[in-house]
């Protein structure tokens, strides 16, 4: 039996003495205020035991990790028909890249790049009665945690500087792939990205993807086939132009956010979340990637 607690503490100690060459995201001004020194890691086994180190209870802005929740909700609401409006191929480009979108007639490469997530947000806006409230309740339900909430200051901060996402949304609209108003879709999108969660809350919520669609309380939210597809999209697209590198070094499906969080999982086995705010040039947490690489190397647990 592996001593998971000792492994996490060992990783934490190794990272403390590793120079963090990353930088916190500054294109969303509120995110630049977070201290670069925080680090948290939380591991939850499918059997329920959990292990942790560092700032694993501190909440941070989940940013693009929210795209997995919105994709899951959209699958729940409209099933495979969402694939008519967004593809499932890796983009090999940064998360906010636009030229492929124009070349490919307004069909985003996948739901985890910004343009794809904006299409998914549009689907949710069409199908949810009270979109922001219903989406938040979905995330709370998955995590079994009513304390999870939006961060209005971060949402407003991104609204003020979100020119690139306005460009993506306008391009989608011009191709007929955005059914609601640009302003309404982006208001929803900026809010979903602003959700604050800790590493522990993220592993609780992502349990559903480790456990074939059933959440911590054994309620079925997604079919096994939908979960298979979501995990495949995370593996191939979850880290943008670094998805290959993450599969190569870590070997797990996962998703990152520019708030510095990463969640990854081994189906039917464990869910793990890390938080370290400084990002590498691809916009993924520099030390978070290292922590997960150390974890799968030390435990020899990966999908490969
Ligand atoms: N809200 C961010 C954006 O749209 C999310 C990006 C990310 O986390 N990679 O730019």
Label this structure with key terms.
single chain, 304 residues, alpha+beta, Beta-lactamase, 2 domains, five-stranded antiparallel β-sheet, 46% helix, binds glutamine
Secondary structure blueprint with pairings:
Elements: H1 4-16, E1 40-45, E2 50-54, E3 60-61, H2 66-78, H3 99-103, H4 114-127, H5 131-143, H6 152-161, H7 163-174, H8 182-194, E4 196-197, H9 199-210, H10 224-237, H11 243-249, E5 254-256, E6 261-266, E7 270-275, H12 286-299
Antiparallel strand pairs: 1-2, 1-7, 3-4, 5-6, 6-7
Bound molecules: glutamine.
Residues 63-64, 95-96, 114, 158, 165, 193, 257-258, 283 line the site of glutamine (GLN).
Describe this entry's structure for a reader.
52% of the residues are buried. Helix 2 packs across helix 4 (114-127) and helix 4 packs across helix 8 (182-194). The chain folds into 2 domains: 4-63 and 198-299, Beta-lactamase (3-Layer(aba) Sandwich); 64-193, 3-Layer(aba) Sandwich (Beta-lactamase), CATH 3.40.710.10. The model has no long low-confidence stretch (mean pLDDT 97). The protein is an alpha+beta fold and 304 residues long. It contains 12 helices and 7 strands. The protein is globular. Strands 2-1-7-6-5 form a 5-stranded antiparallel beta sheet, sandwiched between helices. The structure holds glutamine (GLN).
């Amino acid at each position: 039996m592996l001593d998971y607690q000792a492994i996490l503490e060992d990783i934490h100690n190794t990272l403390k003495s590793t120079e963090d060459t990353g930088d916190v995201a500054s294109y969303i001004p509120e995110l630049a205020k977070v201290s670069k020194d925080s680090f948290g890691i939380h591991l939850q086994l499918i059997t329920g035991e959990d292990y942790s180190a560092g700032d694993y209870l501190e909440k941070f802005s989940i940013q693009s990790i929210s795209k997995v929740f919105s994709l899951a909700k959209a699958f729940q609401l409209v099933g495979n028909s969402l694939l008519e409006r967004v593809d499932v191929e890796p983009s090999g480009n940064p998360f906010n890249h636009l030229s492929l979108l124009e070349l490919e007639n307004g069909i985003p490469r996948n739901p985890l790049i910004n343009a794809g997530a904006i299409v998914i947000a549009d689907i949710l806006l069409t199908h949810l009665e009270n979109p922001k409230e219903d989406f938040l309740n979905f995330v709370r339900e998955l995590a079994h945690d009513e304390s999870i909430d939006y961060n209005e200051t971060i949402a407003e901060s991104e609204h003020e500087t979100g020119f690139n996402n306005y460009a993506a949304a306008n391009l989608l609209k011009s191709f007929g792939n955005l059914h609601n108003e640009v302003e309404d879709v982006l208001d929803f999108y900026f809010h979903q990205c602003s959700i604050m969660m800790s590493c522990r809350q993220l592993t609780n919520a992502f349990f559903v993807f480790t456990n074939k669609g059933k959440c911590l309380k054994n309620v079925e939210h997604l079919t096994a086939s939908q979960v298979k597809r979501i995990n495949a999209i995370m593996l191939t697209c979850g880290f943008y132009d670094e998805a290959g590198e993450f599969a190569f070094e870590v070997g797990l499906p996962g998703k990152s956010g520019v708030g510095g969080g990463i969640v990854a999982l081994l189906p039917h086995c464990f869910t793990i979340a890390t938080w370290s705010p400084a990002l590498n040039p691809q916009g993924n947490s520099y030390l978070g990637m290292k922590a997960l690489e150390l974890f799968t190397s030390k435990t020899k647990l990966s999908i490969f």
